[in-house]
Amino acid sequence: MTKFKLNPARAMLGILVGCAAVLFGGQLQAQPFDLFGMPRFIVLAPSAIITNTPNTSTAVFSNAPVDIHGYDGVADIIFFATNSPYASGKTIYAYLLGSNDDTNWFNLTNCAVTTSYTYNITNLYLGNINNVATNTYLIPGTITTPTAGTAGFASTYLAPATFNSGGTLLTNVAGGIAILGYPVSDGPRYIQVAYTITGTAPCAFNVGCVMIARKNAGNFFY
What we know:
Elements: H1 8-30, E1 39-52, E2 58-62, E3 66-67, E4 71-83, E5 91-99, E6 106-107, E7 112-113, E8 115-122, E9 132-139, E10 141-144, H2 148-151, E11 157-160, E12 168-170, E13 175-183, E14 190-198, E15 203-215
Antiparallel strand pairs: 1-15, 2-14, 3-14, 4-13, 4-15, 5-6, 5-12, 5-14, 7-13, 8-9, 10-11
């Protein structure tokens, strides 16, 4: 009969590891994907009011640059603009500028623009067909219904947005909300937002921009 010699230190280590697995294993599995805590929310352009002067067809405004080193993947850059007071015939453009040295700036050309869709959702559990919420979604692509005879299938699918935009987007006359997808790890270290207002009538736009990006390492900020 073979005899085994017990190593007390190794046995104790095994007991501790087993206890840790029992205590924390369930908690780790129960944690949902934390979209709020993992990325970082960076104010790319603080909320501000920009105006154009009368009889000026184009007015350009920009903010101070932001250093985005230490981030990976595709960032969401969320723009909002509100025309207040409302002035007809006014349009605002928001676009991104990049720089490697914080001196020489150029338009970014590798952005993707989301598409806005509305969708009605009925809460059938309440037993009231009038309980309908209309959600507005900003989708990274275009919902497409193919021609079955040509494509060979008839299922609706999402055609992804292409990353070939000049970093510009157009909000409607009264303003709006839009999102650009921007691959932060493939671009310059510094970026900033520029706004252009077109039209000759005087107006004021309330604008702002936030970037949501995933940091790769470092401290709380980068």
